[in-house]
Request: fold
Amino acid sequence: MRPLAGDFSANLFAIGLLNVSILAVAVLPLTTAYAMCGALGWERSINLPLREAPAFFGIFGGLILVGVAAVLVPGVPLLLLLLIPNVVSAIVMPAILILQLIVLNDRKIMGRWANSAGWNAAGWSVTGGLILLTVVYAFIAVLQATGVLTG
Reply:
């Protein structure tokens, strides 16, 4: 940004990146802890005291510590740490999309809101396209992480 808009824009962009990073450090572990406790039927709320939701706050704090520890370990390839969650998401996403479409087509579950033929065609087309793009992305990410592909 500096060559196009000067030093102020580069500094403003850096502050923006720092702000997004700080927000992500809090939001991602918090939503993960909330989802895990919800799935397991445990108390979950940032408004509850620690003694009423120990699992929630334990998971939340533990995830933050794992993230901090992963970045502070000397010699850990940070690029690989950034790519692993993306590749895992790429592997899991097709199954989630297919399961969502199955549920959306089940009239027992969705009732009158079940997918119509048009929405079904659109949903399966988008799912197929995303699966294809995901396979390509995962392949390229692995090649870049292993150093086979550069650039």
Summary: Helices lie at 2-5, 7-40, 54-72, 78-104, 107-110, 117-145.
